[in-house]
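Subject: complex prediction, re-run

Hi both,

The earlier run crashed halfway through, so I resubmitted it with identical inputs.
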Amino acid sequence: AQSVTQLGSHVSVSEGALVLLRCNYSSSVPPYLFWYVQYPNQGLQLLLKYTSAATLVKGINGFEAEFKKSETSFHLTKPSAHMSDAAEYFCAVSEGEGAQKLVFGQGTRLTINP
Amino acid sequence: EAGVTQSPTHLIKTRGQQATLRCSPISGHTSVYWYQQALGLGLQFLLWYDEGEERNRGNFPPRFSGRQFPNYSSELNVNALELEDSALYLCASSFSGRAAIDTQYFGPGTRLTVL
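This time it finished cleanly. Structure:
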């Protein structure tokens, strides 16, 4: 079964600094990978997804993620953090055809310091 | 275009009661998914409905059940509520259940509190 590990339950960066949120996956088949963001008291919003078309995936709000098969990683980055980026971020892997369920990591809470 | 909608926003019940949560998918979407987000347990897959049929189920007891209506909206029922059922219940929809590549779009959730 697929699984996802997010390293760091809490990440804190200064406004304008690089944001790096780590995600490693375990999958027996080529994975479909997703990053979602959850603002307080809201549902999940899709940031980006990897579908094997390109290893570098660009998403909304200036975020991007790079798929590295050799490292089984799909880390999320943003060159310059903004106060509005403060939220919880979830990495997820689709468990595959016929299952259609998303397996989520534990989430990383991102705090932006002024 | 309207997103996924869920009702009610908040629901307070007591132990042993039944809770009913509702979800309307994005127009044109035929698949509906339910997830539980409980404190300390993260996001857990509950159920997947497509074309009116239950297609997949997570590791939850049978007192968690649901259905999908002909208009593709869905209902989640939780019977014999327990304190640990307190959580945010998220509904998501996708264009179809044909491919794992389909993006799931999430609603704002229903906060269930069991006293």
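Chain B has no helices and eleven strands.

- K.
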